[in-house]
Amino acid sequence: MRLQWITLLLSVALFATACKDKSGPAGGGIANVSDEESAKTVLQIAAGSKDHTTLVKAVQAAGLENSLANQGPFTVFAPTDAAFKALPSGALDKVMADKNLLTTVLGYHVYVGSSLKESMLTDGDELSMFDGGTAKISVKGGKISINGANVLAAVPASNGMVYVIDKVLLPPEKK
After folding, report:
1. Measured between alpha carbons, how far is 6 from 20 in angstroms, rounded to an integer?
2. Residue by residue, what is the 3-state secondary structure of 14-61?
3. pLDDT in tens, the chain (175 residues)
4. Where are the domains of the chain?
5. Beta carbons of 70 and 113 less than 8 angstroms apart
6. What span, in angstroms and rounded, lies between the C-alpha atoms of 165 and 74?
């Protein structure tokens, strides 16, 4: 399971790179990637992304890189490097230094068991994430967000779906 969600995260990173030079529709909609990108796995997409180097390093630090080549299906919400930079000072270092915490945070970015297409995401949906927490989908004016993180691009992969997001999703604290 750990490997599966890592695979998803890497795929998201790869897809974000694939989407970097593609602009979305007028009005700030979600950029989509060609069928050529959808033939790649989540891992191949993440590995090729220049906007997801922090995510890829986190996946490697957690030892989850082989998971992204798994057959899936996964849905990965992949934060950009800018999203990681926007975290409070010291937060990323703290997470990277604690493998269990890192695995939990990465797992909160992965929905396992289905490749959720944009048309399947509806306002108010609650997704059960790999780490055991839930995340809420919002759809307003054709724009999709998850727990307040905006979806910037959607990239289909051969083993799932990658959504590039502008914030790092932080799992709720477990009691």
Report:
1. 21
2. HHHHHHCCCCCCCCCCCEECCHHHHCCCHHHHHHCCCCCHHHHHHHHH
3. 443 444 444 444 333 333 333 333 334 455 554 455 567 877 777 778 899 899 989 988 998 877 766 788 989 999 999 999 999 999 999 999 999 999 999 999 999 889 999 999 999 999 999 999 999 999 999 999 999 999 999 999 898 999 999 999 999 876 5
4. 2-165
5. no
6. 16
Secondary structure of residue 63 in the 3-state scheme: coil
Q: Please choose, from the candidates 95, 113, 88, the residue with its C-alpha nearest in 3D space to the C-alpha of residue 171.
A: 95
Query: Which of the four CATH numbers 2.30.180.10, 2.60.40.10, 3.30.390.10, 2.30.110.10 does domain 2-165 have?
Result: 2.30.180.10
By residue count, the chain amounts to 175
